[in-house]
Amino acid sequence: MSHGDTIPLHPSSQSDIDEIESLINAAPSATVLPARPPSPPRASIPVSSSPAPPPFLPAKPATAGAPPLPPPSLGVNVASAAAAVPPGGRLQGGIGADGFGSAPNTLTEPVWDTVKRDLSRIVSNLKLVVFPNPFREDPGKALRDWDLWGPFFFIIFLGLTLSWSASVKKSEVFAVAFAVLAAGAIILTVNVLLLGGHIIFFQSLSLLGYCLFPLDIGALICMLKNNVIIKIVVVTITLAWSSWAAYPFMSAAVNPRRKALALYPVFLMYVSVGFLIIAID
Amino acid sequence: MEEGYTYTALPTSHLLGSVPAVIDGDIKGGSSSEAFHAASPANLQVFPPTNGAYQAPGSPADGNAQTATDWKGFFSISSYSPYFNVDTDVVVDRLVSSVYPMDNFYRKIDGNPDLYGPVWISTTLVFMLAALGNFATYTIQKRSDPSMSWNFDVGFVNWAALVIYGYVIVVPAALFFLLQYFGINSSLIRLWCIWGYSLFIFIPASLLLVVPVEIFRWLITILAGCASSWFIFLNLKVHTEGSSMTPLYVSAMVLQFALALFIKIFFFA
């Protein structure tokens, strides 16, 4: 790699480089938001600070009731130890976007905090993918903070809705829907990779899962209203919406001469799911 | 910096997900076998692909690094990408020539057989058979029994997948082994390519089979079956150039026609 970079930059790399440069040149007081919240540290046994201090340090009554800290290293002085208390030192340990002080202990945080964090990530990813926003054209930026919970919920929801709408063979309908969607997402990603495209495997799975959201809405409406004409109209609209959501990402990932080859399977999958929604009664 | 670094101009379009690396002049004991890529293009004759193996240029041919088929190449994606090295216009061209005219097809795929066509044609056919089969069954039953209500049988998807994928995978493989047994040189990828593209004609045929007139349906089935069998026959004959295996050709044609009949009888009853 030190022999000179003869490989042309991927178009999305330039935006990353620009971002890094602007961060380097930015004022030191600018807040630097990490691309994703720093991962919580591995679970460590909570150590309360009062019995632990080394013999030559006076006891620190200020931190006695503080959230459990990782064991402070010997020789650290009081000032830095006090500064290591997470901001707003709530007893239960906050989510802590700083990550530079003592890391929050997500093992002991309330379940609602964890769920809320995951839900907010799902919502923000959804807004990035499915609704118009300025980041859509740059696949490097879109869905940088990918996760798989969102796609999981959407696939399960679609399978359940189809299963509820069906009058016979409910479990087989769920199985077919789930298999088609899950295997389809994987196969589509592998297809792009085989055609020589540049995508990250899980990011693409995540994106294809999020693009199912319009079809979820369509399936819900179709379950409630059983009229064929309405179903066809609703499914057509949501199908177009899903395809529009997936298009920029997929088309930017491959060589322009192979764009149609990469997009056709996506279209095929959404059309078959759409037909499944219309046909199940 | 060591002397003796050799650069080869790596065709990077099929190095996926891995950083294209410089090929070192001397052998380093078996490290990072997936990043190294020999200068020679992948051997399209051999399946499973072997270009996942490290091949040091300048060492004697087939050094000790590659014994039998390297099964590590079986599981890495980059070793299959030579079979998908096609552009949109190439695929469209092949699709058209699988229907009309049928004799140019083999020359088009001989140098660069692709698996993109077979995979996605069969997948499309599976979904179309399931969807249109249901619809066609409904329309023809509605003619005889107007009180019949729409009923989607999801088992059609399972049957379609089983039959189509099974046919496209098993029949060329069996033929390949049979040809090897008779000592005829043949290539599995090209056989899969031929069979995959031969299914393309069933896609517009299944669209036409929705029309609820029984005579028309049988007519379409016979036409599509004959066209497809003829396609198989022509290409198989060119493929096994020099040796005449007429019983094999006839049985391949009969199988293809049987597939057409099965599609009509099962899905468009």
From TrEMBL, chain A:
<feature type="transmembrane region" description="Helical">
    <location>
        <begin position="173"/>
        <end position="194"/>
    </location>
</feature>
<dbReference type="InterPro" id="IPR006977">
    <property type="entry name" value="Yip1_dom"/>
</dbReference>
<feature type="domain" description="Yip1">
    <location>
        <begin position="142"/>
        <end position="275"/>
    </location>
</feature>
<dbReference type="GO" id="GO:0006888">
    <property type="term" value="P:endoplasmic reticulum to Golgi vesicle-mediated transport"/>
</dbReference>
<dbReference type="GO" id="GO:0005802">
    <property type="term" value="C:trans-Golgi network"/>
</dbReference>
<keyword id="KW-1133">Transmembrane helix</keyword>
<keyword id="KW-0472">Membrane</keyword>
<dbReference type="Pfam" id="PF04893">
    <property type="entry name" value="Yip1"/>
</dbReference>
<dbReference type="InterPro" id="IPR045231">
    <property type="entry name" value="Yip1/4-like"/>
</dbReference>
<comment type="similarity">
    <text>Belongs to the YIP1 family.</text>
</comment>
<feature type="region of interest" description="Disordered">
    <location>
        <begin position="28"/>
        <end position="68"/>
    </location>
</feature>
<feature type="transmembrane region" description="Helical">
    <location>
        <begin position="261"/>
        <end position="280"/>
    </location>
</feature>
<feature type="transmembrane region" description="Helical">
    <location>
        <begin position="228"/>
        <end position="249"/>
    </location>
</feature>
<protein>
    <recommendedName>
        <fullName>Protein YIP</fullName>
    </recommendedName>
</protein>
<feature type="transmembrane region" description="Helical">
    <location>
        <begin position="148"/>
        <end position="166"/>
    </location>
</feature>
<feature type="transmembrane region" description="Helical">
    <location>
        <begin position="200"/>
        <end position="221"/>
    </location>
</feature>
<dbReference type="GO" id="GO:0000139">
    <property type="term" value="C:Golgi membrane"/>
</dbReference>
<keyword id="KW-0812">Transmembrane</keyword>
Automatic annotation (TrEMBL), chain B:
<keyword id="KW-1133">Transmembrane helix</keyword>
<feature type="transmembrane region" description="Helical">
    <location>
        <begin position="248"/>
        <end position="268"/>
    </location>
</feature>
<dbReference type="InterPro" id="IPR039765">
    <property type="entry name" value="Yip5/YIPF1/YIPF2"/>
</dbReference>
<feature type="transmembrane region" description="Helical">
    <location>
        <begin position="115"/>
        <end position="136"/>
    </location>
</feature>
<feature type="transmembrane region" description="Helical">
    <location>
        <begin position="215"/>
        <end position="236"/>
    </location>
</feature>
<feature type="domain" description="Yip1">
    <location>
        <begin position="100"/>
        <end position="262"/>
    </location>
</feature>
<keyword id="KW-0812">Transmembrane</keyword>
<feature type="transmembrane region" description="Helical">
    <location>
        <begin position="191"/>
        <end position="209"/>
    </location>
</feature>
<dbReference type="Pfam" id="PF04893">
    <property type="entry name" value="Yip1"/>
</dbReference>
<dbReference type="InterPro" id="IPR006977">
    <property type="entry name" value="Yip1_dom"/>
</dbReference>
<keyword id="KW-0472">Membrane</keyword>
<dbReference type="GO" id="GO:0016192">
    <property type="term" value="P:vesicle-mediated transport"/>
</dbReference>
<feature type="transmembrane region" description="Helical">
    <location>
        <begin position="156"/>
        <end position="179"/>
    </location>
</feature>
<protein>
    <recommendedName>
        <fullName>Protein YIP</fullName>
    </recommendedName>
</protein>
<dbReference type="GO" id="GO:0031267">
    <property type="term" value="F:small GTPase binding"/>
</dbReference>
<dbReference type="GO" id="GO:0000139">
    <property type="term" value="C:Golgi membrane"/>
</dbReference>
<comment type="similarity">
    <text>Belongs to the YIP1 family.</text>
</comment>
